[in-house]
Amino acid sequence: MGPDFVKTICPYCGTGCGLILTVRDGRVVGCQPDRGHPVSKGTLCIKGWSAGEFIHHPDRLTTPLLKKGGRFVDISWDEAIDVLVGRLGEVAERHGAGAVGGLCSARCTNEENYLFQKLIRRGFGSNNVDHCARLCHGPTVAAMGRALGSGAMTNSLADFANTDFILAVGSNAAETFPVAMGEIYRAREKGARLVVIDPRTTEMARNADLHLTLRPGTDIPLFNGMMHHLLANGLADQTFIDQRTEGLAALAAHLDDWAPERAATVCGVAPELIRQVAEDYARAPAAMIVFCMGITQHVCGTANVFAVCNLALMCGQVGRPQAGICPLRGQCNVQGACDMGGLPNVLPGYQKVDDDRVRARFEAQWGGSLPAEPGLTVTAAMAAAESPIRAAYIMGENPVMSDPDQRHTIEFLKRLDFLVVQDIFPTDTTRLADLVLPAACFAEKEGTFTNTERRVQRLRKAVDPPGDARDDLTILCRVGQALGLDFSYADSAAVMDEIASLTPSYGGIRYGRLNAGGLQWPCPDTNHPGTAVLHQEQFARGRGLFVVPDYQPPREMPDERYPLVLITGRMFCHYHTGTMTRRSPSLQREVDRPFVEVNPQDAQGRGICDGDRIRVETRRGAIMTTARVVPKVAAGTVFAAFHFNEAPADALTNNALDPVSEVPEFKACAAQIVREATCPNP
Amino acid sequence: MTLDTVRGMARDILEHQTADGVLGLAGDEDGVAPRVFDKADALAALVLEPKWVLAKIALSVLVQTPESYRLAVVCRGCDERALVELGKRHRLDPGRLHMIGVACSAAQAQRCLCRRPWPSRVDAGEKAAGADLSRSDLVRQYLGGERAVRLAKWQEVFSRCIKCYGCRNACPVCHCESCKLEDRVWTAPGEIAPDMLTFHLVRAMHVADACVACGACQEACPVGIPLMLLQLPLRNALQRSYQYDAGTEAERLSPLLANYIDAPAQEIALPDWTDSIEETSWDLIS
């Protein structure tokens, strides 16, 4: 008669907070924080508190849908699986395996992502598998992988609370990782200093000890100026450099040209501030760097992350408790989706597909051959004039709303011979699909998520999926079996056992060990307690590598026609493409319509008042939205959140790519704003 | 031993059908979570730690079950006071509740800054001394000392607010039908940090005379705002002027709900401290 209380993990950002869902009569009727959770310790942000609100929304997809004559009709699962396997197989047969591509999902479990990439690789013989890490921390995985040997956050979130100095670069954790930000406030209360580098006066910047407002995309000059100062004044940690790193000579030669004075002319931060922050960071007993999309979503995103790593290596501020490099991963399981090989060049555990020995091991266990050529990234596949991709399987992603240059994305998806999308709600992407498969949401399945600090945690099933919707694992197993693969797993725990057998860093992960607090990888064997801090004795690659960062200004600079710089990002009460948050009444009550932030100076010059309707234009397109005239964006820049499909920010963004990671430059493109009408309801 | 006593009482209650379920905490290999025990043989999983305010969950169970459903609740002092307060305010029917009273340890009391870490009837555990607030650095920082310094301190913590509404959501005695924090007359939606006066102080005032100092608001705050300390002077004022301590007397209405013209017999009178609050700030909290 009483309700059940089900402990599970929040489906939004990568902090991985603990939720307790109240379940009565097969419905989620409440959601509250888990007091005993090791990360969130009984707290949640507004999205976490509202995480139960979309679960039973009437818009949920409840049956497979096939587009016939331009309209969707309900079909059975048997027919859906036949169509999917038949049509994808047809394309592979006619155009070759490389014509099939798949997007797995940072919102699905490790087990589902593992099976998805296995399905695309084994079932269709294609390495064209990718996901939205390609839109965010791709540069991190590439640069930290090369410089340190592992692309993951080096420390644990709890380390923030006891560190002495925090340098945040291009992160607005106060809005986007609120619970993790709580640890940073704890540190400040104990006397730690927080310095924020960001062109916007974000919530995080507003609550910092010092805010450096650099010009968009000039992080490398700023970091170079800091490092020049440290080397020139003997403030680098020479012992650490000698014992634990290599490659400083080339970097030092490069830095010769980057005295703080020169750096200042490029980045717009005063030379004395550059010196002061460099010294404070270097001298702190323990310092952490936090970084996020503000540096990765640039054409020099990978180089930006190299610059961050260089500074940490130069000062010995990595490889110890409370000292490290912390990319905050934006989705509940984006770390896991990368770990599981949801990337075109690596199998689970970042083992390279073009390594014959690696492939041989997977082939032996998976019982069949695997393609050796790395696949295409989603951004490169879409950007190509003549994309080789002719059919796609998208699981839990919404590229129409999340990928740059929306018109181009839509054209690409429309041109496909066959598109299947598996999701929990109709989205702007499902609309373009030939086949739509209804999936289960986080509260309707078992599995694991890996949070930003590499903590593998269990999701718990609280309720059944609606109608004929099925969890992604069940769907993938049916597809795999239809393709003649041995996809017969008793449950998600059995999939994890297979993951552990092939992925060294997950080697000791078993469901039976994930009680209460989960386990942080690397966890190589079943007696291993997990790893809170990486690179303690030596770096995963041996010595930490200094890499000369190649500075590139933003691809599209402001000009006469488009005099402003557009920055996109997220805000506290909505999340990504809004499929879940925009169906949550508590979050919609906060913000139910799109807006663009405009600096008062730019607004005044154009006769724009707060609340006016404005048109925002770039070379890709235009959107109609509402102006929020606020000084938190610097003059010459405007900010748009990308949650609103009635005014999609990605209709405006530029698909210029970072050449290494092929991540687009969401954080800078040239734009113009024009007043359309006065505020309709002031 | 305290735990055995509570489990034993819970077993009796279920076996004699004194109540249909026992709300407490369940601990197993997956950690701790609230649970409504309805079978005696499951009670081996019942635990008492960590401190977890259950009063709001008890309310939601009562709201969602038929009137014939009776619930026993493993209550700390604060839980019991919150449930009493909810009963007085007609949010629940006290006749459907059965309380198993557990006293908190002195250490827990100090962590919670709780001056009354026991329920009215202690069924398990030993009554420990209440917290000594004068020993708390937090109290000194936020409520003692120079007004300007204190104000700066409060402004600094409030400016971190990300409007998660956790303080409101977690509060067991928060009870308005429509929440003023969601009314755009007072608080601009979609903007953070919300205004100190119209968001935080409105919330504090709304629960001023119902607050039982359970600390759920503060425990739910991701950015570490010491919200309990906001209530403390209000609670002390009620105590000093009206000898009123929310949740301790089931029959007595809050003086803010009574009035001093109709109820002189209850010695309701205009408080004497309103003019001098600034000078006597420390006095109000000590």
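Residues 241 and 271 of chain B are 6 Å apart (CA to CA).
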